[in-house]
Automatic annotation (TrEMBL):
Keywords: Magnesium, Nucleotidyltransferase, Transferase
Keyword Magnesium tagged: yes
Keyword Magnesium: yes
PANTHER family documented for this protein: MOLYBDENUM COFACTOR CYTIDYLYLTRANSFERASE
Organism: Rhodovulum imhoffii
Stretches assigned to the MobA-like NTP transferase domain: 8-166
Taxonomy, superkingdom: Bacteria
Protein's UniProt name: CTP:molybdopterin cytidylyltransferase MocA
GO molecular function: nucleotidyltransferase activity
Amino acid sequence: MHTALAVLLLAAGASRRMGGTDKLLLPVDGVAMLRRQARACLEAGLTVTVTVPGPAHPRVTALSGLAVTLAQVEGDDGMGGSLRAGLEILPKDASGVMIVLGDMPGLDASDFRRLARAHDNAPHAILHGETEDGIRGHPVVFPADLIPMLRGCKGDRGGQRVLAACQARVQGIPLPGQRAIQDIDTPRDWAAWLAAQTSAPSTRSDRA
């Protein structure tokens, strides 16, 4: 169990490009996408903090019963605001933080375990999930000494400023297929993802 590495699952966005549908509540493996992501992180043996828009939001209900900590995000400062809210309540003894996006349903517990093992072996590196052909994506692990810099991030660029300043410390961790870059932003993305699931057998080693 990778207890020193903490997950920050970002789930406070407005889902504006989905035409009125909350993408994080769409069903994946029979449960809301957000719940499935949180459960997969827990199954990987990680402590999980989830950013949410507010205490009465349906996403909070979707997480009911899971051993996660909720961070309420006030204002509208994009990913930077979510990062700051979540990092404020992250375990103080965390050896690093794995930033996980709530809208990437292709990721599963085996991917989170792979990043956690890589962090165990290289605790001072920034670790990027990447596609099998080397395209950078998510999740991203930042070591503990960079968390203060992450707290200064603003706007939707999130941790990009930290990555740009610390390129020498970045290592890619290959994940199967293209799952490291497959996110759901629009109804078209969702339709394409669903079509891909029905047209090919699953190769996942973990089912959350």
